[in-house]
Amino acid sequence: MSETPQHESTDSSASSEAPDFAAMTRDIAEVPAVEVIVTVAVNLMSAAAVKLGLTEEGDEHKDLDEARKLIHALAGLLDGGATEISSFHAAPLRDGLKSLQLAFREASLVPDEPGQGPGEKYTGPVYG
Length: 128
Fold this sequence. Notes:
This protein is mainly α. 61% of the residues lie in helices and 0% in strands. The protein contains six helices and no strands. The chain has helices at residues 11-17, 21-29, 33-51, 64-81, 87-107, 120-123. The longest helix is centred in the last third of the chain and has 21 residues, at 87-107. The relative contact order is 0.12. Mean pLDDT is 88; it is low at 7-14.
Protein backbone atom coordinates (compact mmCIF):
# COMPACT_ATOMS: atom_id res chain seq x y z
CA MET A 1 0.00 0.00 0.00
CA SER A 2 1.31 3.40 -0.83
CA GLU A 3 0.70 6.30 1.41
CA THR A 4 -0.64 9.53 0.03
CA PRO A 5 0.94 12.68 1.35
CA GLN A 6 -1.24 14.50 3.82
CA HIS A 7 0.16 17.93 2.95
CA GLU A 8 0.52 19.10 -0.60
CA SER A 9 3.06 21.69 -1.54
CA THR A 10 1.79 25.18 -0.83
CA ASP A 11 4.05 26.75 -3.46
CA SER A 12 1.44 26.53 -6.20
CA SER A 13 -1.37 27.87 -4.02
CA ALA A 14 0.77 30.71 -2.70
CA SER A 15 1.75 31.83 -6.19
CA SER A 16 -1.84 31.66 -7.44
CA GLU A 17 -2.94 33.92 -4.56
CA ALA A 18 -0.19 36.48 -5.09
CA PRO A 19 -1.43 39.73 -6.63
CA ASP A 20 -0.74 40.20 -10.32
CA PHE A 21 0.91 43.62 -10.14
CA ALA A 22 1.41 43.81 -13.90
CA ALA A 23 -2.34 43.37 -14.45
CA MET A 24 -3.10 45.87 -11.71
CA THR A 25 -0.80 48.41 -13.35
CA ARG A 26 -2.45 47.86 -16.71
CA ASP A 27 -5.89 48.26 -15.12
CA ILE A 28 -5.06 51.53 -13.35
CA ALA A 29 -3.38 52.86 -16.50
CA GLU A 30 -6.72 52.59 -18.30
CA VAL A 31 -8.64 54.60 -15.67
CA PRO A 32 -9.04 58.32 -16.45
CA ALA A 33 -7.60 60.69 -13.84
CA VAL A 34 -11.02 62.26 -13.23
CA GLU A 35 -12.39 58.87 -12.24
CA VAL A 36 -9.51 58.27 -9.82
CA ILE A 37 -10.00 61.70 -8.20
CA VAL A 38 -13.76 61.23 -7.86
CA THR A 39 -13.34 57.72 -6.45
CA VAL A 40 -10.86 58.92 -3.84
CA ALA A 41 -13.16 61.83 -2.94
CA VAL A 42 -16.15 59.52 -2.51
CA ASN A 43 -14.08 57.18 -0.32
CA LEU A 44 -13.00 60.13 1.86
CA MET A 45 -16.61 61.29 2.11
CA SER A 46 -17.82 57.84 3.11
CA ALA A 47 -15.11 57.41 5.72
CA ALA A 48 -15.83 60.87 7.16
CA ALA A 49 -19.54 60.08 7.39
CA VAL A 50 -18.75 56.91 9.34
CA LYS A 51 -16.44 58.81 11.69
CA LEU A 52 -19.14 61.45 12.20
CA GLY A 53 -21.57 58.74 13.29
CA LEU A 54 -23.87 59.29 10.30
CA THR A 55 -24.29 55.59 9.48
CA GLU A 56 -26.78 53.04 10.77
CA GLU A 57 -24.33 52.08 13.52
CA GLY A 58 -24.35 55.71 14.66
CA ASP A 59 -21.99 56.45 17.52
CA GLU A 60 -20.32 53.03 17.40
CA HIS A 61 -17.59 54.33 15.05
CA LYS A 62 -17.83 58.03 15.88
CA ASP A 63 -14.44 59.73 16.16
CA LEU A 64 -14.42 63.46 15.52
CA ASP A 65 -10.62 63.71 15.43
CA GLU A 66 -10.53 61.17 12.60
CA ALA A 67 -13.49 62.85 10.88
CA ARG A 68 -11.65 66.21 10.99
CA LYS A 69 -8.64 64.71 9.22
CA LEU A 70 -10.76 63.07 6.52
CA ILE A 71 -12.82 66.21 5.88
CA HIS A 72 -9.68 68.33 5.70
CA ALA A 73 -8.09 65.89 3.21
CA LEU A 74 -11.27 65.87 1.13
CA ALA A 75 -11.35 69.67 1.02
CA GLY A 76 -7.69 69.76 -0.04
CA LEU A 77 -8.31 67.20 -2.78
CA LEU A 78 -11.31 69.10 -4.11
CA ASP A 79 -9.49 72.43 -3.93
CA GLY A 80 -6.45 71.07 -5.71
CA GLY A 81 -8.41 69.06 -8.25
CA ALA A 82 -11.15 71.59 -9.00
CA THR A 83 -9.57 72.71 -12.24
CA GLU A 84 -8.95 69.13 -13.31
CA ILE A 85 -12.48 67.78 -12.91
CA SER A 86 -15.57 69.22 -14.53
CA SER A 87 -18.24 71.07 -12.58
CA PHE A 88 -20.43 68.05 -13.36
CA HIS A 89 -18.23 66.05 -10.97
CA ALA A 90 -17.11 68.86 -8.66
CA ALA A 91 -20.50 70.35 -7.73
CA PRO A 92 -21.96 67.28 -5.97
CA LEU A 93 -18.62 66.61 -4.25
CA ARG A 94 -18.54 70.19 -2.94
CA ASP A 95 -22.14 69.82 -1.73
CA GLY A 96 -21.20 66.61 0.07
CA LEU A 97 -18.16 68.30 1.61
CA LYS A 98 -20.29 71.18 2.89
CA SER A 99 -22.77 68.72 4.40
CA LEU A 100 -19.94 66.92 6.20
CA GLN A 101 -18.53 70.22 7.45
CA LEU A 102 -21.93 71.23 8.82
CA ALA A 103 -22.43 67.80 10.40
CA PHE A 104 -19.00 68.11 12.03
CA ARG A 105 -19.90 71.54 13.45
CA GLU A 106 -23.19 70.14 14.79
CA ALA A 107 -21.50 67.08 16.34
CA SER A 108 -18.77 69.10 18.06
CA LEU A 109 -19.26 69.90 21.73
CA VAL A 110 -17.29 73.11 21.23
CA PRO A 111 -17.76 74.16 17.59
CA ASP A 112 -14.83 75.71 15.76
CA GLU A 113 -14.93 79.40 14.96
CA PRO A 114 -16.15 80.10 11.41
CA GLY A 115 -13.25 79.53 9.05
CA GLN A 116 -11.44 77.26 11.52
CA GLY A 117 -13.40 74.04 10.97
CA PRO A 118 -12.11 71.05 9.02
CA GLY A 119 -11.37 71.96 5.42
CA GLU A 120 -12.40 75.58 5.85
CA LYS A 121 -8.82 76.57 5.10
CA TYR A 122 -9.71 75.57 1.52
CA THR A 123 -13.45 76.31 1.34
CA GLY A 124 -13.74 79.39 3.51
CA PRO A 125 -16.21 79.58 6.40
CA VAL A 126 -19.19 77.23 6.13
CA TYR A 127 -22.56 78.38 7.43
CA GLY A 128 -25.79 76.40 7.68
